[in-house]
Amino acid sequence: MNLFAKLKKNVADRRAIRELGALDDRTLQDLGLTRSNIRAAVKGASDLI
């Protein structure tokens, strides 16, 4: 992955983290997420527990 692609992915990841963080806890729960695992979910971690 070249530098431009990494930068573009980082910007997209940060935006997704910010947008998910703005959701209320009930909505996050409906998506199967908690506040503590938003970053892992966006970054693609397989273990979210």
Based on CA atoms alone, the radius of gyration comes out at 12 Å
Largest pleated sheet: none
Provide the succession of SSEs.
HHH
The separation of the N and C termini measures 29 Å
Strand content: under 5%
Proportion of residues in helical segments: 55-70%
The count of helical stretches stands at 3
The helix/strand class is mainly alpha
Unreliable runs:
none
Total strand segments: 0
Mean pLDDT, to the nearest integer, reads 90
Shape: elongated
Keywords: Plasmid
Protein name: DUF1127 domain-containing protein
Pfam family, one: YjiS-like
SSE diagram, text form:
Elements: H1 3-21, H2 25-30, H3 38-43
What does this structure look like?
It holds the Pfam family YjiS-like. This is DUF1127 domain-containing protein. The longest helix has 19 residues, at 3-21. The protein has helices spanning 3-21, 25-30, 38-43. The chain is built from three helices and no strands. It is mostly helical.
